[in-house]
Amino acid sequence: MLVSGDSVATTTTVARSIGLEGPVCPPGQIPERVGPEDFAVYAGVFPEDKFRLVKAFQGRGHTVGMCGDGANDAPALRQAQMGVAVSTATDVANSAASIVLTEPGLGGIVLCIKEGRSAFQRILTYTLSILVNKSATLIVLGAGLVMTRDAAALILAVLKLAFLIGILDVAWYDLHLTPDQMQTLTFVALIFWGQATLYVLRERKRMWHSRPGVWLVFFTLMDIAITIWLAVTGILMTPIRPSLVITVLGTTAAFALAMDFVKVATFRWLRIT
Question: How far apart are CA 9 and CA 41, in angstroms?
């Protein structure tokens, strides 16, 4: 499609010379509901009409690419999903475009499309591979647990899941937290429980059977302190009441003790030493 501010005769001649056939939209007000299938050539177009034309195409569900070189093309280049500035474009057009050609001509657009499709295919291949491998791993592990009935980690995981869901249930239905506050609470609960799980699982006997390392305790305290500070002050998240954060911390510690007893009993039942 060719969009130009030149006269109908000039624009039509250029369009036909490059093999662009189809109806020509006459100069004047561009229809509000216009699509790529309506006209192949737009002549006598003002700069603001280019922006409206891009918006109209997008409004009909199309992905729009725009090529320009002047300062007047900047709004349309910015609005288009793919704005392309040619090598001789002004600084304003270059800053508004998503792609800037460094060599004369439009051949660079073809190279950009090829490289973009290649990168997209690699990302798609990687994503599908991850999903397939993870799904297969979960199914194999699940089948192994069913066949061997050796599911020590599954028992502890169910306890952890029940604890986290219980906290969210109370916060949503009883405390009536907002969705943003729920996100902060989820962050806090996951951090606290992650630290608690570390101390529960580091020892096959009672968690206090052996003394943890000094650096482990130090970084745990730092992790908890930073989490409390972020949640209470509202940095990078919606703040929640300090009393709620402390309650979650205390509840996590108490539940960790209960989980430790379940761990020892499970290991004893499975004769894991």
Answer: 11
Q: Which of these CATH numbers, 3.40.50.1000, 3.40.50.1820, 3.90.740.10, 3.40.50.10330, describes 2-106?
A: 3.40.50.1000
Put residue 165 in one of left, alpha, beta given phi > 0 → left and psi -120 to 50 → alpha: alpha
* Sign of the C-alpha dihedral computed for residues 121, 122, 127 and 131 taken in this order: positive
Q: Model pTM greater than 0.90?
A: no
- Under 8 Å CB-to-CB from 230, ≥6 apart: which residues? 236, 237
- For 160-175, write each residue's pLDDT tens digit: 788 888 888 888 888 8
Helix (H) or strand (E) holding 81: none
Domains in the chain: boundaries: 2-106, 107-148, 150-269
Residue 202 amino acid letter: R
